[in-house]
Amino acid sequence: MSEGINGVTQLMLRAWLAWRLREEPPNSSPGSDPRAPMPVDRVKIGAVQWNATPVKRAQDWLDRVEHLFREAQRAHCHLLVFPEYIALSLLGVIMPEDQSAQVLTDETIRTLLRTLGPVTYRYWYRWMQWMSRQYRMVTVAGSALTVVRHQLVNATVIFNAEGEECLWQPKFHPMAAERRWGVSPGAERMARPYRPWGLTAVVCHDATYFETFRMAEALGARIVAVPIADPEVRYTEGKARRGCFSRVQDVPVIGVVAANTGQLFGVRLTGKAGIYVPAPLSFDGSGVLAESPHPHGEGLITAVISLSQLEAYRRQHKAQFPMPPASFLDALYQFEEPTSG
Amino acid sequence: MEVTTLTKLYLTTQHELPPPMRDIDLAIWVADAAAPEAHVRSWAGWSECHVLAGFHESWCGYRPNLDPWNGTALAFGNGYIWRFGRHYLAWVDHATLMVPEVPRALALAGVVLIISHGEEGPSPYVHPLWRAVQANQIFGLRAGPVPSWYLPCDIDPGEEGVSGMEAQAGGWTIEFDVEQLMEARRRFPIHQGLRPTLYKAEAWWSHE
User: Fold this and answer.
1) Best residue of B192, B205, B206 to probe chain A, by most A CBs closer than 10 Å
2) Nearest to B193 among A173, A190, A237 (CB)
3) In what order do the strands lie in the sheet with B26-30?
4) CA A97 to CA B143: how far, in whole Å?
5) Total structural domains within chain B
6) Residue B46 lies in a domain
7) Residue B108 sits in a domain of what CATH number?
């Protein structure tokens, strides 16, 4: 598939994928425990580490997602976070697993993502919404590709425990490879965080920029979920720590990373699910409340965070390290944004 | 003074500036008391290179082009900035580094090395200088009793963004190449991804 893909082929691929992803109910249903009241201070968070390997059947993907919901329910989580590009594993239902992104031209990848991304998005959205309602859990669904106003964007969604969409947020800072593959930076304003916790979600590379966390914090965010899919061949703590972990030290909020790992059509992904806090709020000063033991594989990590403890620390931090004046910040961001794709 | 892209830096925390060393382009002297300029000048060899000396939280340099950055819109916190060949270096105190806008502004203005002080803590990653280095693809020198050299993960063979310095004659040395920063920025272009239009629309700062 290294040649360009014509319009007829695109239509056929889209129809074939839609057929393979036609509605199939999950194999099992959750327990019917009455919904526990939503906590306002101590929130138990679950973060997913996902194996990106493409699936042969949509049902396999759904079963794995539901298994993680069930695990989170058993652990009494109030919030569950899935990783970036979790929906791309669904492309395995029509594409061979050994199809390698390295042998495809950027143009072909761009066409494939634009043609098939929205089909996986619809499936992902529908079932994440269904699961969050069935398991009565606030869910950061990870991210998927969709087309908005003719632009391909990588968007994350938060569903509340009733399965209603309460936040939709495109990635603001796509990586260079994503831009080559046609992913546009989100043109929207930042979404308002979900109350009562001040929960927001930003996608992967957005967490490289402290500005993202400043914007979120100013809108009232106190928990920032970061679905990631890091295209790194080798996991190193240094590279991993320069994202969400660093941002919660810069801007005192809670950071939750859900990581997509493994081989996705020849792209090696590494990363760990983690729950991070400003270093003084962790008992050992490390800033890490919970983290996956390995940078590959699938599973769930959990931790309880305290919003009142965070608020007390934030007051102290603000007094000690005040924000620069408006004149400084106006001058800092006076340059023009690059317009190239 | 002609400065090549490869720079040899010497750091000492001795009470007295040790005898001059050869082939040093930049010397950082963390003195525990204000050193008279004449003291530095008396060491003829040291006058051949940039020497930045400091005590407690005030720093003074023995080169005419060391300037505090007051008087501009981007002046915030405590620090100094000075020209070094075709680039700029800065010294910033620990509290100022905790405000991530400051290293962002310095890096965008052409600063390639930020020097600060303090202990490393339980891991290098919680030190604000390490974060400033990674967020802006610059170099960082933590001038503590046991110093650390921070560099972008993308040009560190270990990808951890931290390196020890070589012990030498009452201090430590490290060689760095500013051109390597260009390679780091090519591999992981952070500044090109900035969204000033979005940041201004969402301005987290107030004009009141």
Assistant:
1) B205
2) A173
3) B58-61, B50-55, B26-30, B6-12, B171-177, B166-168
4) 51
5) 1
6) yes
7) 3.60.110.10
Asked if B92 reaches chain A (Cβ–Cβ under 8 Å), the answer is: no
**CA torsion B16→B17→B19→B21, rounded to 10°?**
150
B164: in domain: yes
Tally A–B CB contacts below 8 A: 145
Structure confidence by residue, pLDDT tens digits, A311-327:
999 999 999 999 999 99
- Find out whether A85 and A113 touch, Cβ atoms under 8 Å: no
Partners of B148 in beta bridges: B142
On chain B, the residues whose CB falls within 8 A of the CB of A221 are none
Residue B207 lies in a domain: no
pLDDT for the residue numbered A125: 96
| Partner residue opposite B126 with nearest CB, options A279, A332, A337 | A279
Chain segment B39-57, per-residue pLDDT in tens: 655 555 676 677 776 655 5
Sorted by sequence, the CB contacts under 8 Å of residue B121 that are 6+ apart come out as A279, A285, B127
Does B197 reach chain A within 8 Å, measured CB to CB?
Answer: yes
Residues from chain A contacting residue B201 (CB–CB below 8 Å):
189
**d(Cα B107, Cα B105) in Å, to the nearest integer?**
6
* Residue B158 falls inside a structural domain: yes
Q: What is the pLDDT along chain B (208 residues), one digit of tens a residue?
A: 444 578 899 898 877 777 778 788 888 887 666 655 556 555 556 766 777 766 555 556 555 555 556 656 677 777 878 778 788 888 888 899 999 999 999 999 899 999 988 777 778 999 999 999 999 999 999 988 889 999 999 999 999 999 989 998 789 999 999 999 999 999 999 999 999 999 999 999 977 6
Distance from CA of B207 to the nearest CA of A (A): 6
Chain B residues inside the 8 Å CB shell of A324: 76, 99, 101-102, 205
> In A, residues 309-328, which contact B (CB 8 Å cutoff)?
320-328
Domain encompassing residue B137: 6-200
